[in-house]
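Sanity check record (used in CI):
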Amino acid sequence: MSQALSGIVSRSKLSFKAFVVLALAVTVVVADASASMAAKSAAIVVDARTGKTLYSKDANARRYPASLTKMMTLYLTFEALAKGRISKDTPVVFSANAAAEPPTKLGVRKGGAVTVETAILSMVTKSANDSSTALGEMLGGSEQNFARMMTAKARKLGMNGTVFRNANGLPDPGQFTTARDMAVLGIALREHFPQYYGYFSQRSFRYGKRVINGHNRLLGRIKGVDGIKTGYTRASGYNLVSSVAIDGRRLVAVVMGGKSGRSRDDQMASLIHTYLPKASKRGGGELIARNDSAEPMAVAEATGEETIEAPAKPMVAALLPKRHAPTPDPKPVAATEAVNAVAETTVTAPEAKTATMTAYAEATQVDPLATSSVAAGSWVVQVASAPTQDGAKAFLDKATKQAPRALADASGFTVAFEKGGVTYYRARFGGFGSKNAARNACGALKKKNIDCYAVQQ
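Expected output for D-alanyl-D-alanine carboxypeptidase:
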């Protein structure tokens, strides 16, 4: 018996040793893989009047957005304001999840609330993680669903190299973007919501007895700079999106992966100084793709059979006219990168452990190149299929315009599929909480003479 026990112990020791060796090997491989995205520089300068790229360096390579993520949270907030779903005085209640976000934060306790405007101001100046989460939960029902809405909106804007996993930019290996996509978003914010864009030039605001100063040090330093957003984590490096408008010229520039805040700011200042004189004073038409099609909606049969419509009329020129092939899928990212120290976000030990486990679990579950951001198993509404992605987007735009109330909480996206060796694109709306919600939305669309059917993703 003692010999048997000795043998078991011996084998256990061997197994444990093998496990340790394997674990170390996996850690090394994963850590090496993370270097493909971590803290590498990328930059782009875009003429915001014409959409012409004036400068580009690794602009299509995947990078971590850090707090640049909040630009999309603000985009969806502005959209909700513009549609009248919320007002500047609407209370934003902070859940336990929002209140527990690590700094930087506004510091609202669980159950407390601020107005939408205060939340916006805290995000554009202090880059408040708790405010961003609270807004996301209010607009999306949950932060997870809001992240799906963010990614769906990114696809609609043409940001095909971006996936969002949270509302604030806290470390997550499944959340990434490109410098080009951030330029698209920067221009879209001004083009679509000029009535709210002035928030990005806010350098400070008063909250209670405190005066909260902003992080964007180029405001007031470089003539013509009017925003937009800074961001930093150890994995991302120092990021910055800047907008410049002066003497009839407009630029949006992006710098990612800076070694320090100062070097990032200096690089941005140099790019603005070099390329602003090369920007056009004349606009080149609409910069963000919009639907000008008068084609009828495609019929979407309840059987699930695809009815393929002829291509819609050409859409207005997209923001960035040249379409680039997506960068290769990144290798699994080190889970440890998800808990790196943050300048704008300081993670405590218990939170870091949780973030590590979550990051590692999600790292291999991301399909960043899919056009659909809706989780598998969720219910969506399909309105059409088309032979081109632009054609599918045209159907989405038309449905949104015809039935804004029915689709107020939905996000349009496209899904590619093959039929007879040819690639087509489904036009779908996601963001529905249940089968009944999707069917009810479809019923409302049919009342507007929009054919559709609810289907499980």
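The first strand starts at residue 42 and ends at 47. If this sentence no longer matches the regenerated tokens, the check is flagged for review.
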